[in-house]
Amino acid sequence: MKTIPLPSTKKFKSDPEQSEKNNSEISHWTDLQLKVEYKELYVPKSFLAMVSPVFRLMFESDFKEKDIDELPLPGKKYEDVLIFLKCTHPGKRLKVTYDIVPKVLPLAHEYQVQWLIDDCSSLMIMQMTGSPSLFPISTLCTKYCNICIMAEKYDLTSVVARCMEVISSINYLFYKDLT
């Protein structure tokens, strides 16, 4: 395993996005290079192991990844991985919003980051609260069905249950609007 030199006197930028801009400054702080869509993100293995039990097992057990310096993530999108890293970063955590749930939930599920899955679930449920009469019924049905499909795909049973409750009540709202 390569040794990590003592920190330089330069200011350390721990934001994963900065790793693309300041590779020489960042690289001595990291021991892993994530390869995503022919781009690189530099992260400490310890950070990934702290966030994810999947990465912890990968780096602490006798898997081939234990001693690697590069980890290709085929099939992943660079932007999604970057947002995932920002959402899990302990120093500068990006606030999880509903807009980024489709980007981070698949990664949170794959890498078993339970608190992030829970945040995504809460945001999905919050999208189904409020006054549905502000939107056309067809827009609501599409939105709720998309939430339900995503929740089903990632085994979010409480979100699926809430979707069923809300979708079944839309029929009542639709007929109520006709009277």
TrEMBL record:
Residues 30-92 form the BTB domain. It holds the Pfam family BTB. InterPro entries: BTB/POZ_dom (IPR000210), SKP1/BTB/POZ_sf (IPR011333). Residues 1-24 are annotated as: Disordered. Residues 12-23 have a biased composition (Basic and acidic residues). PANTHER family: BTB DOMAIN-CONTAINING PROTEIN, HELIX LOOP HELIX PROTEIN 21-RELATED. This is BTB domain-containing protein.
